[in-house]
Specification:
disordered N terminus; Laminin; 464 residues; mainly beta
Length: 464
Amino acid sequence: MFSAARGLRIGSSSSMLTGLVFALLSIQSGHGQTCTEGSVYDRRSRQCVDVDECRSLPDPCRGDMLCVNQMGGYLCMPRSLYTQSYRPETPVLPEPYPDTSYMDRLDTYRQPPPGPVEPSYPIVRSTAPCILGYAVAEDGTCNDIDECETNSHQCNPTQLCINTSGGYTCSCTEGYWLVAGQCQDIDECRYGYCQQLCANVPGSYSCSCNPGFLLNPDSRTCQDVDECEDEPCTHGCFNTYGSFMCNCDEGFELASDGTSCIDLDECSFSEFLCQHRCVNAPGSFACHCPDGYYVFEDGRSCEDVNECESGNNTCTTAQVCFNFQGGYTCLDPLKCDLPYIELSDNQCMCSAENPACRDKPFTILYRHMDMSSGRTVPADIFQMQATTRYPGAFYIFQIKIGNDGREFYMRQTSNVSATLVLSRPIKGPRELILDLEMVTVNNVINFRGSSIIRLTIFVSEHPF
């Protein structure tokens, strides 16, 4: 910021008259004619004429200083140095008359006075041939006086002196501006010089960026930093504006530090995740089944291994392999205890003609079944019915032996059939043998006889 003065005030009568200060700032008139400052455009003569600032400006010089008009400017100098009046080329105009135009009156005042023309600069008591602001050199020429170097300027201590031809200018260094004659720091941060963070310092400012940004070469704007290039995450990284986010592979979760991944214990979520046992693994889990089972296609439930079909059993050729949930058993060939005789592979008969068979069941049929441990109740698990019907006969179904814990009962469903019902849950592994009796009663011929189904139940160890 620069300021230009059109006049120079000399401080006291003992000061040397060092030069004149003329401001050559040009202004554009309304007629397209360019006049220097201190001149006005005359439309009639079509030229620029001088303005007498000593008469047109209020109090142009202060104190005991005398204002002397110059061509294009004015001079303030001590009265003791002034010895001769001067005649301005263009006198100050009187107040305008209401019936006379400004240019008409200006033309009247512009007429040259009679007699010799007075010089337009003051005559001082000095033999110096140079104007104010210049000094005589050894070769007789006028050289500019550097008031800034000689410290003869009147700039404020906070201001910067800039030497000019015939004078000097008081200004402020970059980062300061002139306020009431003092150079004050410019707070650049108030005017948004920085895109993000700004710190004002005397005569300047400093820009910085928020975390996640870098200062551009222009030292003002910021650009996003792609933190993912430095691979801060254990698994995946996603760059965001001014930051980043880490993500983890399936089966892992983000740790408290926000960058590393820790294994996710899926087995802790639910006890029903696996049908039998859940084993956690890095990033995953696995369901395990007990011996006698394999993991089904869904990866979670257990399916029984049929050792009898796969041949993975220890039964001899004389035995019969019976598979049940989670295992198998080898059944020996049927041996009927006397007086029973073998009627088929799984049935023994006691003939009515044999006196030893009196009061014994006529037939014993052997059956086997399996059942899961802890099966829900009530549950229908076995059905029996009469295969031969006699006129006038009716049938009674009952559990003869093996129901000491009263886990079962018989529910008759018709005159010739009944169902074995599980009434209490049974925990395995366990082997139960029930004699289910069907009593045939015929009052017409006064007959009473019975048949037995000897049911062996293999209860598995697990509830599947």
